[in-house]
Amino acid sequence: MSLSYQEKSIWGSLLATLIIYGRYYASGAHSGLIGTVIALIIVEIVCQTVIAVAHRPEPKDERDRLIAARAYRVAYLILVTGVLTILCVSEAIRPTANTLFLALVVADVGKSITRLYYYRRGV
User: What is the pTM of this model?
Assistant: First the structure.
């Protein structure tokens, strides 16, 4: 089964996000947030360039827009749930900013997984 350009692009972004932020949080979130974000930007640029050169981008159609809309809805629900949970259980000592940022990362991963699911399953 061949992957479309959009699916390859999503896989590239998902893997980059999991690797870069996985390393950031595995280090105890002490490796520097700005450096982590810059590293992700660089990896994304390289990854998306390689994918674009190897597989010509296809124009987005109604199916692509519907999949993106559903994925953003899932990501938003994950984000809201994460933020509300953190605000409810957060202690003054806990680094809330890093925890809230983690909710953003998990929401983005949820969006990518949802998009991949709908590309494979169909809408």
Answer: 0.71
